[in-house]
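Here we describe the complex-level prediction in full. Unlike the single-chain runs in Section 2.1, the two entities below were treated as one system.
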Amino acid sequence: MYVAVKGGEAAILATHDLVAEARRGDEAVPEISVAQIREQQGLACARVMNEGSLYDADLAALALKQSQGDVIEAAFLMRAYRTTLPRFGSSEPVDTASMAIRRRVSATYKDLPGGQVLGATYDYTHRLFDFALMDNGSVMVGLDPTISGHEGASATGDARVEPEHDGSAQPATCPLDAHMPRVPDILGAEGLMEPEVAPEGDPRPFDLTREPVSFPADRDVRLQAMARGDEGFLLGLGYSVQRGFGGNHPFVGEIRVGEVSVEFVPEELGFAVDLGEITLTECQMVNQFAGSKDVAPQFTRGYGLSFGHSERKAMSMSLVDRALKCREFGEAAQYPAQQDEFVLYHSDNVEAAGFVEHLKLPHYVDFQGELELIRRIRAEREQRLANENLTLPEAAE
Amino acid sequence: MTAEHTPRQRWMAILARASRAEIVELVGPHMPDHEVLKAPETGTVMVEGRAGGAGRRFNLGEATMTRCVVRLHDGAMGFSYALGRDARKARLAAILDARLQVEAPDGALHRDIDALSDRQNAARDLASRKAAATKVDFFTLVRGA
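The structure predicted for the assembly as a whole is:
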């Protein structure tokens, strides 16, 4: 028999105090500021903004601080905060063609208008520790001079000699081209790329935060779901597509990172107001051909767009976007990444974490029911076996 | 912002990009008498993208924004809309929007806006030149010559 109980208030209050202490860590170490996280952990902030589906770098940094760096918990904080805010409306669609470029690379064209601009990337680093970043000079034994530009240091010597090159980024004489064409548009001009045009009437996009999703889901629904989806989940799905659990092994037509203006038309003014800039990452994948009797073979597209500098996310999204277009190209949807219901229902890490982690909450009554059931089944089984043993000798006769 | 925008759209964009400190400096030490018609309010704007950059619209995610409406004693109404959650910046930017509408185009405040715009353009130019320093120069290795 189970009797419902209340309790745990004192324990919960105590755990709030304890988690605050755990979050703060050793008080001998200075406390990290939100501004430090925003400025020095910007890629983590970008991930929190994407998965929290709210662009606000200060809030993302606060969320990371409050969650001790737990990215999914931080995204949850962003989502929860968002629900407290009124929505003033929708922006005009952002124009990534007029992005103020900070990075732009293509794997398909070497010499493309505007050039290959590496920007700030870890792609060409050796992935060796740069111990110069460690604030304790005594651990800089074996310092690799190729990473930091510093000479190697002994355990006792001060390795932080001013290097000749101070490491600050030196600007070029001329800025980048003001307008850099998007690579798929270059292919499109030749008719080699599947065109990307707005449907008749340029309809308002579906909003999955306001309306329930039904399947098959249209592309706007899929792109919104992936934009707020878990980077790791989409990365795994994108990887699966490349490895053979899907039919696409594309080229990166282009990745671009930079700032775009967000324009909004307030009802009371009736004209577009520029609200300022946000940083975006866009990835356009060039996939192999599709054609038909009427259309000559063309490359097909996969598209990814994400907040901040987050190109692994944008690349994964564009791989899965193409995989999810299988139906439109008459391809069989036989792998997980090609199944919209599977992808969309499992990509949201706040929902997924909620359902997985709810298992640790009290299920005392449910479990009591299970216990009673299993005991009854076992008792019935024993009774049945006992009866069979009694009746067996007679059956043998 | 491009040339097709009106002067007001241009200064609103410049104000939206300015820091609070820059806005405070533009307002100066004497805050004009004004009535707050719509107190600074923070909400969100749903940022839209287009599939492939040019195709079907989709919702990328929201961004925080703050808006405010004021009226100066001479009746000029000022509006401000900007990304972020800065209520004080919103109120001061709305005051500036009202003053810029009544001031002659060659007035001091308009010149201050131009100076701020120059600083914003210079920052953008510097960022672009830093990126340009990472532009790849390819060279071809002749083989079997």
